[in-house]
Amino acid sequence: MASQNRLDPLTAFMTVAQTGGFSAAARRMGVSPPAVSQAVRALEDRLGVPLFVRTTRSVGLTEAGHRLQMRCGPALEELQRALSDVGDLGENPAGFLRLNVPSVAVPLVIAPLLAPFREAYPNIEIEIAVDDGLADIIAERFDAGIRADTLVDKDMVSVKLTPPFKWCIVASPLYAERRGLPQTPEELSDHDCLKWRMQTSGAVYTDWHVIADGKDVRIPTNGTFTVNDPELLHRAARDGMGLAYTLEPSVTRDLEKGRLVPVLQAHWPSEPGLCLYFPQGAQKLAKLRAFIDFARANLMAGANRNGAQRPQ
Questions:
Q1: Which helix (H) or strand (E) element contains residue 182?
Q2: Where, residue-wise, is CATH 3.40.190.10 in the chain?
Q3: How far apart are CA 133 and CA 202, in angstroms?
């Protein structure tokens, strides 16, 4: 039932005009006749002209009331359609879904999901912004972001998408034959290490995070090739151009096929996994709920096939 204390005067006026009486308008709106009368009177006082001619037997529009009805009717109908359309976003998976993701998430999450998700939800328009920085998804009007679980602000809702994984160091058999492989993290400085440039900030990542003596340490590296695309990074490593520091799941097939070999495997650090994050309440949008459910179901299925731990 509508609130009698917050009855919109314009809505009350239009309902009276459409039904031809205050009692009929009150029944349609689910309020009392005095509440409707009070709302209309407030509108008349605001405009400074009477909108209805009231008698004990009937209610009719004045000239001012007739003009207001003619002008406001189409506008209110359009407003109702707009409100209905917006309301549908909470019920039906449709609309514009904007996601902010780091480049490392593209092969792990976005690439395997994008085509089947579009096929399952053709009414959702998707925009993927690849961003290696920490974007303010609210200020930049993204529906959600994907980041490592440890990088998500505590006031965000997060949904885990991938099992834990390791950051790994790999090289091609050709590089190993030509240059040999480092046996300790400190020896990395004597090798060609492929450098990574952040796509958003432009900063070059050259300090590689490894585990040494049970501690997290960063080892400065050197190299002559810099890239900001994961596929090109892996191609350069396969071609023997240098050692690559990358996510283990993104090179699993290359390791299995022998196109790449592990380097300093005992020193690879672990990552808790990637998660989808968004502000409180955003999951009420059907488009985002659809993506969450679809991503978790499909990524967990893939993890199970590979014998990996399920996301919690």
A1: none
A2: 95-163+273-305, 165-271
A3: 10
pTM of the model: 0.63
Contacts 24+ apart (CB under 8 A), 133-137: 133/198, 133/200, 133/201, 135/100, 135/200, 137/100, 137/277, 137/278, 137/279
Q: Which pLDDT belongs to residue 195?
A: 95
What pLDDT shows up at residue 202?
A: 80
Query: pLDDT for 26-83, tens place per residue?
Result: 998 889 999 999 999 999 999 998 998 877 677 888 888 888 888 887 777 776 666 6
> Are the C-beta atoms of 225 and 195 separated by less than 8 Å?
yes
CATH number, domain 165-271: 3.40.190.10
Q: In this model, does residue 312 exceed pLDDT 50?
A: no
* Residue in this structure with the two tokens 């009350």, named with its chain if needed: 12
Matching CATH number, 95-163+273-305, of 3.30.700.20, 3.30.565.10, 3.40.190.10, 3.90.1170.50: 3.40.190.10
Separation CA 225–CA 171 (nearest Å): 14
Classify domain 4-88 at the CATH topology level: Arc Repressor Mutant, subunit A (1.10.10)
Task: Over range 275-302, report the average pLDDT.
Answer: 86
Closest to 48 measured CA to CA, from 58, 69, 62: 62
